[in-house]
Every structure is written in C-alpha cells, then in structure tokens.
User: Fold this.
Amino acid sequence: MHPMLNMGIRAVRAAGDYIVRCMERMHGIEVITKSRNDFVSDVDRRAEAIIIDVLHKAYPGHAILAEESGAQGDSEYRWIIDPLDGTTNYLHGFPQFAVSLALEHKGVLDQGIVYDPLRQELFTASRGDGAHLDGRRIRVTRRDTLDGALIGTGFPFRTLDKMDNYIGIFRELTQVTAGIRRPGAAALDLAYVAAGRLDGFWEYGLELWDIAAGALLIREAGGYISDMDSGEPWRNSSNVVAGNPVLHDRLLEIIRKQC
Assistant:
C-alpha cells in the first residue's frame, strides 16, 4: 500500500470514530446554516481538524483544501478533505454519510479514500493501482443498457436554476431504468458506482471535496466520470455524470436533451 494512502486511511478512521461517537449526543451538536439546505456542525469542524492534524504530523509541508477551513499552504502535494459528506443525513440520524479524502500530486489525483464509519467500509484507490473495498478489488458494472440499471443522483439544492433540467432528466430516466436513488452523500454514491452497487450517477452543483476521491475510485475501477456539459474527463467541474464507459454515454445523451 502506498505510504500516503496508508496515512490518509489513518486520518479518516480517526475522524470516523469521532463522528460515530458524537451520535450519542446529537441533542448537543451545534449547527450553523451556511446557505439554504447547507449545514455545518461542530462535528464537521472537529472531524476536519482531526484529519488535518494527522496529515500535518506526517507531512507538515503538504497543502490542504478542506471544506470548512479552506485552503492552507502551497505544495505540489494537496490533500482535499470533506470531513462529513452527508451532514444533513447525519444530523437527522439517517445512516448515510462518509468521510472523503483525496491527494493530488502536481494537480493530478493520486490517492483517494471514501470511508463509511457506520458500516466501517473503506473504499480506496491509488493512481495506476486500481480501486478497492476493504482490500478487495472492485470494478464498475458491465451493464451496457439503461434497462435494468440502478442510477444514483442528488437534488440540485445549491443550483435551483437547474431544477427544471433536473426534473426532465429524472422523468426520462425513471421510465427507462430499474430505479433512481438519492441517498444524500455524493462521495458514497461515487464509491458505489466504483463498486458496482450503482450503475451510474449524475448531479449538479457539487464541490471539489465532494467528488475528488470518488472520481479517482471510479477511474481506477474502470469507469468514466465527466463534466456534464462537455462530456470531457472530469477536472474540477461541479456538474458530473459517471458510470461504466457505455452507460456514461447513455446517461449523457439523456442529460443533454434536457439542457
């Protein structure tokens, strides 16, 4: 295992343990509204601090881009942190949330981790070395048609101007797939595409820390993730579509008809 991946795993497990422990005191968690339907809690902030502390002790010169504390440092190595993806789920006791951590080297995704602390499932990827779930190799599905496919999504709560487009896509996909799921934690949705639990995924208005680790997982699992508008390989876009290469193209065709 790559030593930086190993250190990242140590960081997300420490944060995950803290997140789960805090579920016993939900009534006392401080919550701040960042924007409509977008919340941050003291658990998010503390989990992020735990991750940064572990990483900085091992790699004090590395840069950080974290959801709650922003950008820190300047280095060819940059860690991208979402300490608690699915905060709204977490605050409601809905058991679908994760810690997401990615490492860029010279602007290229090199390591990715998505950790589900409740199920203790660890999704990992290293550039050129494949994607794994708890040490076992994972691959995207081989499905070549939307008929029978299970597709993940997220409502565009940050980009309400896309709602009409979204509803049109949702309507058409509902008619040609086995079903659509909206669990509420994009990092886990992307990990599930990599593991073959979902056949595809699309969402508007995501942030870099929501996507980075999952994007590497999908690529290393043989899938394709792109910018929704151009269809080009994903590079920091907020609007994404993902799946195996065939289903990705099928999804993109439907999405473009509604845009």
